[in-house]
């Protein structure tokens, strides 16, 4: 396993040279490089460094990031489902990208997280992928993600030249940052107060569970999460 410093010092080949080395099309290498830069940019703020590391990995294996994605998908499937996304608008995005909100129905969130956003026929207007930049208050077309089910994603600025349409036939799952449901904000509110969280876990707010609102969903989630943690520690 090479160290971070070794990757920085490693002489890397150009895209065309890598394509020739691995006997693949240059477009394939370019696609893998794009994926690689996104992955490595999570570990370094310098785009040039992220590109250097990605080229080094692809130099050793042209399918490095494809294989890495499969491993991550397996890990994601095995990961306990007791996490909610961080606050909308706070996850860093790549330089040159734009953060967008695609607001949809609550049941659609899980499917979109798995499959991405595809061109469809909305209730109003022409066919296309509709999205908006968050405004100064963090709202999308139909409100704030804390109150309206929202897919948060990012694309290159060149793919959002004609708002409110994304200039893509599909937004790939890799471009999706998070799927926000209104009750997620209530969980974050509970988690921000250790005493409140402890009271919820102990059942002091169980009288609210019969309510058909986002607080009841958050309370149920927090209680189940605590129970799951207790079972894992036994």
Task: Count all strands and give the number.
Answer: 5
Largest sheet: 3 strands, antiparallel
**Element order, helices and strands?**
HHHHHEHEEEEHHH
Backbone CA Rg: 21 Å
How many angstroms does the end-to-end distance come to?
A: 35 Å
Shape by Cα distribution = globular
Major beta sheet, strand line-up? 1-3-5
Judged by helices, strands and strand pairing, the structural class is: mainly alpha
The helix count comes to 9
Low-confidence stretches: 74-80
Helix content: 40-55%
- Mean pLDDT level: 86
Seen as an oligomer or otherwise, the chain set is single chain
Our estimate of the beta-strand percent is 5-15%
Task: Describe the 3D structure.
By secondary structure, the protein is mainly alpha-helical. Helices cover 44% and strands 10% of the residues. The chain contains 9 helices and 5 strands. The protein has helices at residues 4-9, 15-22, 26-40, 47-60, 64-78, 108-115, 182-191, 194-201, 214-233; strands at 97-103, 117-118, 150-156, 170-171, 176-180. The strands form 2 sheets. It has a 3-stranded antiparallel sheet. Strands 2-4 form a two-stranded antiparallel ribbon. The protein starts with a helix and ends with a helix.
